[in-house]
Here is the input.
Amino acid sequence: MSDTTEKEPQPRRRQARGERRIAQLLQAAAQVFCTTGYTAASTNAIAREAGVSPGTLYQFFPNKEAIAIELGDRLMHEMREAYGEALAPVDPATPLEEAIGSAVDRFMAFNTDHPVFFALMHGPDIPGRMAEAHAQLHTTVIGRIEALLGSLMPDATPADVSRTAHVCLGVYKAGLELVLSHEGAERAAYVQETKDVLIRYLEPLTGGRVGTPAVD
Here is the structure.
């Protein structure tokens, strides 16, 4: 057997080890960012949380901004999938309470599984690239909410629909902050309160039913 044949798997093994190390560092960074916030976090703290030397961390990331951007990119991809599912068209016969409950549950599940997303995206000093990506996500989500509301409020003006969509997202974000600051039964109670506020706000505007946005 030639030396070339024996050595071929090694780059793949090194790549796999590198991916595991990156995942380890990102997990540690998520913990540190949640605990201290992005601004106060340091590469030394992240390396310590990961159980590696700062030199090992620098083999993969030059600074904490690069770590935050990589973590944010991965979470943004997952978030887009989660929001796409939560805001997918629903059967017009679905009661408003059921539709709102399902959407809020999906949103909350992502954010409670990944609390670092909220910590990064709503912090006072996040990297510019992440801020831009989050702004794009915000625009996409607002557009999807407007599309859903447009079918529920056929007589409303575009300005009314847009305003209602922004209020809904604002209510959700306020509820999310409360949800993330509690655990157990209290967390579940705040999730339900968020649903109730949205339902009571939308019910008189929509007649309590949901609809499917028109397809272009």
Notes: The CA atoms of residues 184 and 205 lie 33 Å apart. The chain has a mean pLDDT of 85. The longest helix spans residues 9-36. The radius of gyration is 22 Å.
